[in-house]
Amino acid sequence: MAIMRLGRVEIGCPNWEKSIEYYKNVIGLIEVAREEDRVYLKAWDEHDHHSVILKKNDSAGLVHLAFKCEFASDLDLYEEKLNNYGVTTERVPAGTRLAEGEAVRFVIPTGQTVELYSEIEVVGNGLPLVNPDPWPDGLVGMHPTRLDHLLVAGDDVDGAVKIFTDLFDFHVSEQLVAGENNDVTICKWLFKTNTAHDIAIIKGPQNGLHHFAFWLDEWVELRNAADIMAKNDVMIDAGPTRHGITRGTTIYFFDPSGNRNEVFCGGYITYPDSPTITWTEDTIGKAIFYFERELNERFTTVFS
Amino acid sequence: MAIMRLGRVEIGCPNWEKSIEYYKNVIGLIEVAREEDRVYLKAWDEHDHHSVILKKNDSAGLVHLAFKCEFASDLDLYEEKLNNYGVTTERVPAGTRLAEGEAVRFVIPTGQTVELYSEIEVVGNGLPLVNPDPWPDGLVGMHPTRLDHLLVAGDDVDGAVKIFTDLFDFHVSEQLVAGENNDVTICKWLFKTNTAHDIAIIKGPQNGLHHFAFWLDEWVELRNAADIMAKNDVMIDAGPTRHGITRGTTIYFFDPSGNRNEVFCGGYITYPDSPTITWTEDTIGKAIFYFERELNERFTTVFS
Amino acid sequence: MAIMRLGRVEIGCPNWEKSIEYYKNVIGLIEVAREEDRVYLKAWDEHDHHSVILKKNDSAGLVHLAFKCEFASDLDLYEEKLNNYGVTTERVPAGTRLAEGEAVRFVIPTGQTVELYSEIEVVGNGLPLVNPDPWPDGLVGMHPTRLDHLLVAGDDVDGAVKIFTDLFDFHVSEQLVAGENNDVTICKWLFKTNTAHDIAIIKGPQNGLHHFAFWLDEWVELRNAADIMAKNDVMIDAGPTRHGITRGTTIYFFDPSGNRNEVFCGGYITYPDSPTITWTEDTIGKAIFYFERELNERFTTVFS
Amino acid sequence: MAIMRLGRVEIGCPNWEKSIEYYKNVIGLIEVAREEDRVYLKAWDEHDHHSVILKKNDSAGLVHLAFKCEFASDLDLYEEKLNNYGVTTERVPAGTRLAEGEAVRFVIPTGQTVELYSEIEVVGNGLPLVNPDPWPDGLVGMHPTRLDHLLVAGDDVDGAVKIFTDLFDFHVSEQLVAGENNDVTICKWLFKTNTAHDIAIIKGPQNGLHHFAFWLDEWVELRNAADIMAKNDVMIDAGPTRHGITRGTTIYFFDPSGNRNEVFCGGYITYPDSPTITWTEDTIGKAIFYFERELNERFTTVFS
Q1: Average pLDDT, stretch C245-270?
Q2: Which of A220, A291, A298 to mutate to test binding with chain D, by most D CBs within 10 Å of its CB?
């Protein structure tokens, strides 16, 4: 039993029509279903019904994020752990949103609404399960293979991290620390899968969303993605560059509603016994943008 | 608690001196320690003391393979499961080989000796744990980041697979089937991590080793690896090419002792809910070598 | 004044409809014009009206190849040189094929019909000449940027080479030699541009075509091209691999009419003072297929 | 007869020891010879004795640049053309610098000293001329294959360009223009080889050097180069990014003496009939840095 992956994010989109068009044709996600105020999208290589929900909203930002568990019984188990820990939970009934089963919902100390679920309609990745080719025809835009991770902000970073490490068996791959004794947490990167991070939590505005990231397989796809951004007048925040943290390569950019996106590629493999890497405040530039070795102001101040 | 990864392989090397030289300078593994009849090697980005043991031997082939578990208590737990299932186990005392803690040893129905362990000396990956650069200087040869997976052969494939799926919670990512009703297993690919396979088991000579594989991050590194093979007169069996199975890209080649190596790159991410992909016998060429769409005879007949 | 480049090839296509469909959708050339028995195609980044003419024919093979000269006056100049050298020429009037100006036609000692021309309708590369993006939308298939080179066969290799070197100022980048004193020419690679070869001439059947090649910018595009071949059941002859000769990376494959195509990438830059590299017969495997270090029989025996 | 390529640059290096160390170990050029106040370097795949001369100097900047001609007689021919055009020339005797033959020297209207030469000692590229492997062992740093181009500044851009186009048969691949009628030249990119540019000339400080560039074969090598810059605390000015102009991908960075270097990769092929592409002032950001679509101030103001 366990959390398997970051299953979905629901994103507020005040710039509604342009955002839909952007996620479909520029990012290259596939629209699976649509309601009055929600569009359900998936990356091409995901099998579940959706991983990104666009929500027609007055403001940008994260409406909720959700982790998919292996078994239905995991929900009871995690709920009990959360309640014992003092976290209030509620059950979100199946059918609250399209194609989804029941979920356990709670709020983490940094303010984000998190859900755990195990049931969602499976629609497949567009390839047959018998003798498939490696990729389907007809992909457009950057066409990432999947949702990869997100970085959320809030005040009590250590409190939020503890829920993931103590209750959900996440591990800390990297941390950025400050203070005279390097004992003040600025940010922690957490993994449950074998990737370098499934979620990261940074000191910042409560319930803030810094970015959510899509996976690209290779550095050369980042160049292609950057071309597509330029051709479509998408505002690039930073990159293509490398992160010191995770070693991953990256581009940060903004959707038409002001949410920061990332295309991320690479990074090392992690296991429960991977050591935690620490970055000190004086090397924050190299930690975040390894090539430039300095942050732009926008990167540290703009959240949605 | 769980198996975390394929932790090590021990490989018989009749062509002793040349094999050592090859794994160090052509593959680019790092020698960590040496005994009279064993050389202990690690890939640069691994933190544990070793992942490959070369064993001075009269014959090539697999001496043993081992999975690393998260906790010492996992050994008891898995041992009990194995015994209840009817598999005889023995304890390998700490210190039997260099740097290793205690292990549980057993033989799977295809004849391979498998060990489970949780303790091994940690030596690090050559980078500091504070403010590290993304890669160390001084790497040589193909310098893969890590041991990735192996393919073993034997008679009772389904019996061996059952141990991994039923007792160790591995999942089947892909299978190659034959027979009129596609109900004869030729090969199954199994994962415990989020990679496309940690071990695969194929119908073939008992206790056979088809190949073990090192991870390269990108397609371009396969070209570089092939250049290094050509410069060093390493015999290439197949590739650079793509697998239909796993979508990974690959080169197969032989060490000086006759063991088949692979450098492997890519493939999709897996989760416990990933569907099993099936390949039918009539597409076996495409399944194994997607570009060539036919097997060479050597590939299907040479095991060590 | 000078020959600027290999401007076009005209290719016999007995398998007419399938060949048209293949060059357009699998190779990804653009159809510019069509006649009863000819289809005119260009690679996307070429500016001239066409570089490949498919000719409805009873047999596969090269109908003619042509080099584009910088000035109309070059035709007179080369014609005089050819005639003085003892080569008979004829004038092909403008309008003989679509969009083309006048040409000087002659036959080289290996049997191929060669034309020199300077006028052809310019249609552009699909990008504006003011503030263009780096690539246009809507490309399909392998979409090479341009026709790169070809390899033709015949009996009198040295005789054919002499015309290119002595009359047209081509240089020999590489040669494959045989015989006790390495004085028998098997093949010579010739360049006029700064690429590793514009034409190569090999001992073989008179007026033979071994292959013509399209340019891809990067090794990763060869992988993509191979995927497209596999998805479309295109027969691959060899590759992806590297040539020892030119250092270029390559895939050889066949069109539906039996003409061998190549997608070629890389190779060094040449200048008139580049030294000629020699390959001896005993290393022919490595010379042609650097990774495999052996030729397949098909590669040395099949010409169209 | 013709200019074949940009043959060498001589660069002023006030920070003498660090600059030598940098060009050898960070860029990865090979030291061929050394005098009291000059170090002679070549990129690994160049055959001539040197392409970069470091000059111990009080100030950074370009001491001279030189083009290699095919024949000794080209010097007489170009000299006559220059003199007829009103440009004063002088002969630089063989042996003025190491390994070099005689040169014709003159100053272009933007203030740079230019030399034409045809003789220089040939030392080879480290690979045999018979049966060579594709690359030699022992390369360090970014190890570009060759010097590619440079961008110089001065007041009379059109005057300098005319010498290259009218006397030396260079062609304009791209131009950046300003003014109400787009008739003011800011910069022109010129080619004589089939690359996108051999030299570019921009409005700026007289006898200014904006940068000189080394060739890398692939986008992935730019990432590697950027890693090496970060590991060696080399200041990056911009990149990895793409140029709108030439489509090439690039990193700009500074040597320890304050000269701007570039590693450049890609760009289209050119021929004498390639159309000139024009960029208008309002798109200057996209023209120079296609991804960022804005210039940094340093890029437009710092020359050496």
Answers
A1: 98
A2: A291
